[in-house]
């Protein structure tokens, strides 16, 4: 956590969402499901359908019905979906189980701390592992956010170095 998966996914989403018939960013899936269990997953399915179908209300009675609705209603649409912070296969399968649920040219971006979700038979995901930043890049990112400049201001060089060292290459920890 804190390495920048969500930030990268948001940036990609903002950059390319206009190239699709519909789009949806489902943020913080893990905690929404931890809070509400199946009700949280059902709400995420409703959110996905409402956003892509450009409607204010879609009712899903249970997760299985949600799967069926997603598959049936989005099959012909070229969509962009970001599913952020997925923790379990149940979550992934309920929101974007199979490629044929979505139209040709669709893109599904999944962020997870559990890379094993994306491995195994029948899973042909392209993967990108976000790595920690080196010290210089961390310091530059910290400086841009803190001082609006690529380097720390002179009176703050020493404390900035300590903060960035403490964060250990995790951008969000330094901010």
Automatic annotation (TrEMBL):
Protein name: NBS-LRR protein
Residue ranges of the TM segments: none
Gene Ontology biological process: defense response
Pfam families from the UniProt entry: NB-ARC
InterPro entries linked to this entry: Disease_R_plants (IPR044974), NB-ARC (IPR002182), P-loop_NTPase (IPR027417)
Annotated NB-ARC domain residues: 1-148
A molecular-function term among this protein's GO annotations: ADP binding
